[in-house]
Fold this sequence. Notes:
By secondary structure, this protein is α+β, with helices and mostly antiparallel strands. The protein has one domain. Helix content is 21%, strand content 24%. The protein has helices at residues 60-65, 72-75, 86-95, and strands at residues 2-4, 9-14, 33-34, 44-45, 50-59.
Amino acid sequence: MGFMGSGKTAVGRILATRLGLRRHGGGDGQGPIPDETDATGKSSKIELPPERRLAAPVMLAQVKAAGWNEFELVRMSRLSVMPVPAEIREWILAQA
């Protein structure tokens, strides 16, 4: 899911295609994408092309109200990229 905006709204489904996992090891075999805005060289970027746009946006507040408290984005809303469990993903798609 792609969440954006100050209200953290799900607007579409995305798939990370190139991961920048320099600090955590691993990766996708292509290596990290350097973040040219980070003078320390510690940050990297990921590629997130959209798969499809949701018919209607789903607010993070709706996810919280539905009781999905184990979802990482609910617990740590400052995360920028995280997996969405299948059950939650299907619920979000059904709301859209």
